[in-house]
C-alpha cells in the first residue's frame, strides 16, 4: 500500500512540479521536471532539435534501472505527459518495511533548453558539466527535500533526469541522477 502511495505522490509531483517560466501576461506556462509546457521555446530551440523523436524509455534499460536502484520495477511510458513533443519515462522502487522508496525518470524536451528551467524558492541551482562534458542545470530540493533534477543540454533541447524519495536524502537522489546519466549520456545525440 505504501509503495502505491509513494508512486501516486511521485507521479503527482512529477506532473505538476514546474514553476512558471514566463513573465508575460496570459496563461502561466510551466517548465521544469515533468510538467507540460505551453511556453514559447527558447530562441535556440526554434531550430529542429536533435532530440525530436527520441523516446525517453529507450535511454535506460530496466536492467540498468535495477543496477541503480535494486528493486525498481519495470518502466512506465508516460508518452508526452510533459507536453507536446516530449517523451516521459519513469521507474519506481517501492517502500519496503519503511525503507527505500525512490521514483526516478527521464524526460526528453526537444523544444526547451536548460535555460528554460524554472527554479522554485528553496531550490538550489548549480551549473556543473555532465560525465560526458555537456552543460547541466542541477537543481536540488526544487520540489522539496529529497528531490534532485539534472537538466542536460542536448543541442537546442534538453534531457531531464530526476529522482524523488520520501525516505532518503537529496544527496542520495543526486547520486541516483548521476548514475542514470552514466547510462543515458552514451545514447544521446552529439550536441
TrEMBL record:
<protein>
    <submittedName>
        <fullName>DUF3558 family protein</fullName>
    </submittedName>
</protein>
<dbReference type="Pfam" id="PF12079">
    <property type="entry name" value="DUF3558"/>
</dbReference>
<keyword id="KW-0732">Signal</keyword>
<dbReference type="InterPro" id="IPR024520">
    <property type="entry name" value="DUF3558"/>
</dbReference>
<feature type="signal peptide">
    <location>
        <begin position="1"/>
        <end position="18"/>
    </location>
</feature>
<feature type="region of interest" description="Disordered">
    <location>
        <begin position="22"/>
        <end position="42"/>
    </location>
</feature>
Amino acid at each position: 500500500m505504501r509503495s502505491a502511495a509513494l508512486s501516486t505522490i511521485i507521479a503527482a509531483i512529477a506532473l505538476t512540479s514546474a514553476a512558471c517560466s514566463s513573465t508575460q501576461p496570459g496563461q502561466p506556462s510551466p517548465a521544469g521536471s515533468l510538467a507540460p509546457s505551453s511556453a514559447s521555446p527558447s530562441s535556440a530551440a526554434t531550430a529542429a532539435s536533435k532530440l525530436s523523436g527520441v523516446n525517453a524509455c529507450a535511454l535506460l534499460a530496466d536492467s540498468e534501472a535495477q543496477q541503480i536502484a535494486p528493486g525498481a520495477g519495470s518502466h512506465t511510458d508516460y508518452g508526452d505527459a510533459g507536453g507536446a513533443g516530449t517523451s516521459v519515462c519513469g521507474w519506481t522502487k517501492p517502500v519496503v518495511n519503511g525503507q527505500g522508496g525512490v521514483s526516478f525518470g527521464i524526460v526528453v524536451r526537444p523544444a526547451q533548453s536548460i535555460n528554460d528551467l524554472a527554479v522554485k524558492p528553496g531550490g538550489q541551482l548549480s551549473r556543473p558539466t555532465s560525465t560526458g562534458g555537456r552543460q547541466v542545470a542541477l537543481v536540488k530540493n526544487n520540489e522539496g527535500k529529497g528531490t534532485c533534477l539534472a537538466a542536460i543540454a542536448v543541442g537546442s533541447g534538453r534531457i531531464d533526469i530526476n529522482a524523488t524519495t520520501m525516505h532518503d536524502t537529496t544527496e542520495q537522489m543526486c547520486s541516483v541522477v548521476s548514475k542514470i546519466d552514466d547510462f543515458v549520456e552514451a545514447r544521446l545525440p552529439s550536441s
